[in-house]
Amino acid sequence: MAKAQQIVVAKSTWGIRNIFQSLVAILKTTLVVTAIYVTQEGEQWSQERTSSTESLSKCNLFSGKWVFDNKSYPLYKEQQCTFMSDQLACEKFGRKDLSYQNWRWKPHQCDLPRFNATALLERLRNKRLVFVGDSLNRGQWVSMVCLVESSVPPTLKSMRAVANGSLSIFKAEEYNATIEFYWAPLLVESNSDDPVNHKVQDRTVRVQAIKKHAGFWTDADILVFNTFLWWRRRAMNVLWGSFGDPNGVYKRVRMVRVYEMALRTWSDWLEVHINRNKTQLFFVSMSPTHQKAHEWGGARGDNCYKETDLIQEEGYWGNGSIPSMMRVVENVLEDLKGRGLKVQLLNITQLSEYRKEGHPSIYRKQWEPLTEEQLSNPNTYADCIHWCLPGVPDTWNVLLYAYIFRR
């Protein structure tokens, strides 16, 4: 009887041990399979991410076409941007056709990344992103602020102006990040440096003087420069010396040459003062104007007023964009690269050339009362230089975003 009980107990013990060993074997198998799956998934994700980065790095982001996209564009609503500029708020000032907000730039060989405001703010944590230049660069700055500010609670964002209004600073408190704009329309010092009273009859530049401006952006982590529009005249006064100095030397210098002189001063300053391990540098190419409709097949004497469609001719280039000045920029940046300093050119000219319908035209705040003659002929006061927001400058910032994260 006792022996029979021992056999039963032994069988029972063996059964329990067998079940336990089976469970352990099943668990081990599950863990191995899971590990293999996770590893494969991780490798696949890594490969996809690497492949995406590689395809982006090999892709010409500036060669492509505009695709109508009313599902993912616009990237923000004009009315919901706290810091929208009345110069660029076309819907607010009566524009009814809003299709200009729904165009997405599609490079021929890849896709641009979707703009992620939180990711950008995280990248900017404890950093300064500073736009430096003229009103077109200010428009790009407003666009960038509009793109990110909806991701920041109202109590944790602020805007202030310093340096007599020359420097505007948007701050995301939680990230200790700032997105700033500094008014320097010619980059070097000029008699157009006042952020409000800059419309002067005879423009004068100190082509060798940049230190006063540069003091406001020296320690920035990302710098985005532009300058072109204010150079568009046959010649300009160049001053060697200080404004008001009776011993100053003035000389009249033709457009392309004086432009190059100023950019050489700018590039020399960058070479000496920029921390190559810290600062990312960008230069935005010329922003095209659409002031002569006959250039794209419209009536002579018309401009961007009433335009609602894009220019479909691939490679279209208006006379407002000057290739010789583009070559100056390219040569200066190439020279800097040879000296060990990389400045990425954001070549927005060609892609923006197609967007004749993207300007404010008459749909903006008028800073001075319109005359009866102007009111009778809106063509005469249509703004075909700046851009409506949301609109074309948002794409410039998506391109900037792609390069910031490419590093």
TrEMBL record:
Protein localization: Membrane
A GO term for molecular function: O-acetyltransferase activity
Domain of life where this protein originates: Eukaryota
Membrane topology note: Single-pass membrane protein
Occurrences of domain Trichome birefringence-like N-terminal (ranges): 58-111
GO cellular component, one term: membrane
Keywords noted in UniProt: Membrane, Signal-anchor, Transmembrane, Transmembrane helix
Signal peptide limits: none
Main localization of the protein described in the UniProt heading: membrane
Pfam families the UniProt entry points to: PC-Esterase, PMR5N
InterPro entries: TBL (IPR029962), TBL_C (IPR026057), TBL_N (IPR025846)
Domain Trichome birefringence-like C-terminal: 112-402
Similarity comment text for this entry: Belongs to the PC-esterase family. TBL subfamily.
Protein name from the UniProt record: Protein trichome birefringence-like 34
